[in-house]
UniProtKB/TrEMBL annotation:
This is Stage II sporulation protein E (SpoIIE). It comes from the Bacteria. One of its GO terms (molecular function) is phosphatase activity. Residues 5-32 form a coiled coil. The keyword Transit peptide does not apply. InterPro entries: Bact_Sigma-Reg, PPM-type-like_dom_sf, PPM-type_phosphatase-like_dom.
Amino acid sequence: MSKPEQDAALRCQQLEQENADLRTSLEMLRQDQEAGYHVQKRLLPLNAMEHQGFRLNYWLQPSLYLSGDFLDFWSPKPGKLLFYLADVSGHGASSAFVTILLKYIVSRYAKEDDLSPARLCTRINEELLVGGLDKHLTLVMGCLDTQTRQLTYTLGAHLPVPLMVSDGEVQELEGSGMPIGLFPGAVYKDYTCTFPEKGCLMMASDGVLEVLPGEGLEARQKEWRLRVAASGGDLESLLQRLPGEPDNWPDDVTLMTVSGF
């Protein structure tokens, strides 16, 4: 074998080894991502969970193995139901890790005597900034008094605006707020309303706006409202009204309902 042929054969062997190493690394990465997916999934509440006259339903579709969307729903004390839907900036593992931190922070501070979604958002904002994670999130968080049906909630720059469906009508939850984890000293406000008998609060991450038709944010939010109205607040019905195949959607998409029965 000539010298050029020897060099070519050696280079071929080196490329084969590099490709084998690359495949091994990709498989390890896939396994890590898959393990993270299962951890994150185990942290989610049970779907179709019922508690004290209210029911949680949700549907979460990550654009990758791991999701920057997260939600929770539980009773931190008798007569109270706390829930939230969060959308962390970015995609993948770094955003997913923030959702795990978020669950820990909320669970820790939800034990305070005077439960306030606005104060919880202030705590989350402080913790994210101190951590220096270079991540922020939007969030809708509510606390339901199951006896009086009073809903206290706060909005952390979350889009689309949550919608209350009741007796064939759809109303936006009023209010506004700043994103969480961006600005030191950000102030959040508690808003209140009465949760209607057999009403349904429909929430979603902003990924749903990316799959809806329309030019600009206002047009897509209008489309969101129309499709929620057509669904009557039913999650399965709403899913059928969203265009395209979920596996091809460009962003994480989460739909969440809290309904009375």
